[in-house]
Amino acid sequence: MGYSKKYLPLFLGLAIGVGVFLGSKLNFSNPSAKLFSYNSKKEKLNRLIDYIDYEYVDEINTDSIVEVAVNQILENLDPHSVYIPTEELEGITESMQGDFIGIGVSYYPYRDTISVINTIKGGPSEKSGIKAGDRILMADMDTLYGERLVREGLANKLKGELNSQVQLKIFRKSKGVFNVLVKRGRVPLQSVDASYMLEDKLGYVKVNRFAETTYKEFKVALNKLITKGAKNIVIDLRDNGGGFIAPALKMADEFLKDDVLIMFTKNKKGAIENNYATSKGVFEKGKVYVLINENSASASEIFAGAIQDNDRGVIVGRRSYGKGLVQREMALGDGSAVRLTISRYYTPTGRSIQKPYDNGNKEYFNEYLERYKNGELQSADSIQVADSLRFKTPKGKIVYGGGGIIPDIFVRKDTTRVGETLDYMLRSGRMGGYVFEKLDKDREYYNSLSEDEFEQKINIDDDFAEDFLKYARRRGVEIELKDYEDQLKKYLKATMAQQLFGAGAFERIINKDDVMINKVVSLLKKE
User: Fold this and answer.
1) Is the dihedral of CA 147, 151, 157, 159 positive or negative?
2) 98, 150, 393, 434: which has the fewest Cβ within 10 Å?
3) Comparing C-alpha atoms, which of 275, 245, 271 is closest to residue 261?
4) Among 54-68, 70-84, 223-237, which is the least confidently predicted range?
5) Residues 398 and 280 in one domain
6) Domain total of the chain
7) Could you tell me the residue range of the domain that residue 424 belongs to?
8) Helix, strand, or coil here: 326?
9) Do 238 and 359 belong together in one domain?
10) Rounded to an integer, what distance in angstroms lies between the CA atom of residue 485 and that of residue 475?
């Protein structure tokens, strides 16, 4: 960090001064006139830092002082006011913008080489003839292979200015080493993972986050489903941690009648900003089902709350995360930024769904463990509600505030060791690594398959599954899957489909026999 631990009390003391400094910079009442106006307290802080920089007996990194102080201040405000260092801001911005400038490949470092998992459809690499399984050896004069392959910074060697060119040296088993000139372009970061018909008249859309491009992606998906005959719709927001509010409001608008309240915000001065549905909605009559779980947060909860409070649809799953604070990102002038909470949002009935954070950030972020311990993930009866936070929808349905959206239809979580182990194997990349090796042994064949051909021709047999278990054991993961072999095979096939065809193919396979989706289907049949 550039300083000794013995100076920590000094730095924490400076936090108070830096707090005054930030407070003066984040005055929203008249930003153009007052944000950078002279302030004697700011000047005092600047002088103190200068004194330390020039006169202190030991060398001190004053940049580190400021960063420690800023983090300390924000941690004591609320769990979602955060400092974003310069080196992290670009990646976060790209994710929320929904695209970046690059060559359009999904890859990972396999052994000592950058290996292409797949190319983005219609992207620069696909147009240049790069295929899944190719190894990228060099980008211009930069070597991208070897025992000392440094994973951090690899993406930057493939990114660049829009329409700039990069000379890639590629190795392909069937062709050897050859050069490809790729013109960099805009590469989309999809936030709509999948959209397809679950069955006759029932469409499905999976949204993984709310970025700038989400509504546009969602609108395209929704229109296609309507064209295919969708009269009812499932919106899957499981594990969607949120993002920008605007796309969530526009999505909700598609399902709500004109002038219906979607949500409202309130700041510390009591100023209220209402958000209403418009006449643009194209799905105001069919049945709507929203899937949520304990990781559905923020903008996901805004959408679910708007549907629930307006009696527009059915919320299926488990209680959502409970984030009802609104942040605004502001630059600090050196490439870093602060994301500061500026207001609270409320659902149409007036509910705040922000869970308490009075006991500090650690307890706040570990609240999931409490849900696990008290049995809430297994039974709706274990969900704790406060009668003082009881609200009523226009049709008389009782809903509660105080910490997440409580579903109308509860679906328990698979907390068995098997379920958690399979989830870990998937998320850790171990399953992906195994599947990549399998595909790589017959890459030409797999690359020749269409998605429909893959679905029909590829079956995961017992030998394939057992070979994966041996692969996991060699890497220190012992898995006992007796009576769960079919579930493992489904995960393996879904991972293969993802590497070959993308996230949509993964969702179509993993959703087969999904308990929440099955619940929706059974609800429809009863009506």
Assistant:
1) positive
2) 150
3) 275
4) 54-68
5) yes
6) 4
7) 417-522
8) strand
9) yes
10) 20
In sequence order, the 6+-apart residues with CB closer than 8 A to the CB of 287 are 231, 232, 233, 313, 314, 524, 527
Reading the block at residue 48, the tokens are: 């103190």
Which stretch of DSSP H or E encloses residue 136? strand 135-139
Contacts of 63 (CB under 8 A, 6+ apart): 2
Of 443, 383, 385, 384, the C-alpha closest to 413 is 383
Is position 87 within any domain? no
Residue type, 434: Y
**225 and 356 housed in the same domain:** yes
Tell me: do 175 and 201 sit in the same domain.
no
Does 527 fall in a domain? no
HEC profile for 232-269? EEEEECCCCCCECHHHHHHHHHCCCCCCCEEEEEECCC
Same domain, 32 and 115: no
Beta bridge partner(s), residue 187: 100
pLDDT tens per residue across span 90-131: 888 888 888 889 999 988 887 788 899 999 888 899 999 999
Q: What's the distance, CA 23 to chain centroid? A: 30
- Is residue 493 very low, low, confident or very high in pLDDT (cuts 50, 70, 90)? very high
Q: What's the first-to-final CA gap in the chain, in angstroms? A: 62
Domain boundary among 76, 108, 125: 76
Alpha carbon 85 to chain centroid distance? 19
Residue type, position 7, single letter = Y
Task: Specify the pTM.
Answer: 0.86
Tokens 């194997």 belong to residue: 425
Does residue 89 belong to any structural domain of this protein? no
The average confidence (pLDDT) of the chain is 87
pLDDT for 31-52, tens place per residue? 444 555 556 767 887 788 788 8
Same domain for 61 and 112: no
Give the model's pLDDT for residue 147: 65
Which has the higher per-residue pLDDT, 439 or 480?
Answer: 439
Round to whole Å and give the CA distance between 503 and 189. Answer: 11
- How far lies 57's CA from each of 3, 12, 46, 322, in Å? 13, 19, 18, 48
Element (H, E) at 222: helix 214-227
CB 315, CB 325: distance < 8 Å: no
Residues 348 and 218 in one domain: yes
CATH number at residue 325: 3.90.226.10
Cross-strand pairs, 495: none
Instruction: Look up the CATH number of the domain holding residue 128.
Output: 2.30.42.10
CA distances from 386 to 314, 350, 392 (A): 22, 15, 14
Segment 399-438, tens digit of pLDDT = 999 899 999 999 999 877 667 777 777 776 778 889 999 9
Can you count the helices (H) and strands (E) in the chain? 20, 21
Q: Examine the domain organization and report whether 273 and 361 are in the same domain.
A: yes
Residues 6+ apart with CB under 8 A from 233: 202, 203, 204, 205, 222, 225, 283, 286, 287, 288, 289
Q: Which of 188, 223, 248 is the last residue of a domain?
A: 188
